[in-house]
Amino acid sequence: MDEIYQKESFELKVRNKTISKSSTLWLLTFVVFMSMSGLGLIVPVLPLYVKEMGAKGIWIGFIISAFSIPRIISGPYFGKLADLKGKLKPFIASGLALFSFSGVGLAYFKSLFLLFLTRFFQGLGSSITVPISSAFAGKIAKKGDESFYMSILNTGFFLGFGFGPFIGGLIADYYGYFFTFITMAVISFLAFIIVLLFLPDIKTVDIKFKKDSSNIFQIIKEPFIQGLFALRTTLAFARGSIIAFFPIFVSNFGASKTEIGVLLTVQLILISVLLIPLGKITDKIKRKRMQAVLGHSFAMLCTFLIPFLKGVWVFLVPQIGIALGTSFAIPAILGLLVESGRKFGMASVMGLMDSAFAFGLIFGPIISGKVYDLIDIKFVFYICASIQALGLFWFAFNLLVRPLRLKPQ
Asked: Which residues pair with 201 in a beta bridge?
């Protein structure tokens, strides 16, 4: 394969003023926090909103999954395009604009099909914003501090997605679904304005880049990438299913929308608090592969525990357990992704991993919705844990057993 990225340097500028890497990372993290807060607002209410419109389990699954359909193809495409262009800021801004428009659509559209289309375009915005933001952070990360830099950025993801459900539940309880969706649109628009005015762009200079170096089919041949892809897909299967059906399952025990929002928020806030210190530790101990396996194994066991519990606040136990396992594993995964991105193209790898996550988010809620309709909602969580176990096996086999075809440069 041709040489790639023999030398890559860049400048971070806003209106001809150079901005430090640290300032850029924290600004990007704040933008991510805002955008994820907007998306998180609708997590506890969208399944209930769709159900109140008369949708059955399979339609709930389709509407939740619609968010991820465009991400399967467009994530790798926009990632490769961003690597070729060398400019990341316009991609992030365009994705945030789509977020804002989709919030307005959710507020005003009343048919299940139009809600499906709105979620589709919301997913298109995510396929641009999420991987390109990750690629941005990966590009400016110092060698040896990959997990730390990426953990800071992902703190914005989790913190935003943590506060979002809590705030969304409150708004829905007191003001209704309409204002929840409009609030999401406003927050996303404000993030869009901040990116346009204040986020510096990466101006790539003195770079050797061959057009086949970001070939997705070449990247996916690597056992290293295959293992990460499998893990991301199966984790997304579980996460998408839980987002879709955990609110319904807990509501059977009398939980209000606010209480559901709190249960979802606790997990994500705890992850946010732990990510940065664990990212620093991950870079020091340098056992990323084993760390990822152990963390996600614990989270899988906590998912399996959910159907055995009764009540409302008792569900804090598995939520906290999932948070502990996930926050232990995520910095390791993020560090591995940056290492791969330096070899194959940062945005290309991040886009491919976003595609993997989207693949799981699509089929998770759909399959789980069918399980809910045909068997019982408890089996949704059994299926999630089983799928996670398969992903962990393939990840461990590819990263701990099979050798890399090509060593990182």
From this structure: 13
What is the domain partition of the chain in residue ranges? 15-202+210-401
Tokens of 165: 């459900």
301 burial level (CB within 10 Å; 0-12, 13-18, 19+): middle
Identify the CA nearest to 36 among candidates 181, 170, 187: 187
Assigned fold of 15-202+210-401: Growth Hormone; Chain: A; (1.20.1250)
Residue 397: DSSP 8-state: I
Closest CA to 64 of 385, 361, 400, 336: 361
Summarised one tens digit per residue, pLDDT across range 131-145 is 888 888 888 887 777
Closest CA to 350 of 69, 71, 28, 79: 79
According to DSSP H, which parts of 7-141 are helical?
21-41, 46-52, 57-66, 69-85, 89-108, 112-140
Report the alpha-carbon distance of residue 366 to residue 311 in Å, rounded.
Answer: 26
* Separation of alpha carbons 249 and 243, rounded Å: 11
Yes or no: say if 144 and 284 are a contact pair by the CB < 8 Å rule. no
pTM for the full model? 0.77
Hey, what are 398's tokens?
């590819």
What token pair was written down for 374? 């045909």
Do residues 157 and 36 make contact, with C-beta atoms less than 8 angstroms apart?
yes
**Between 405 and 191, the higher pLDDT residue:** 191
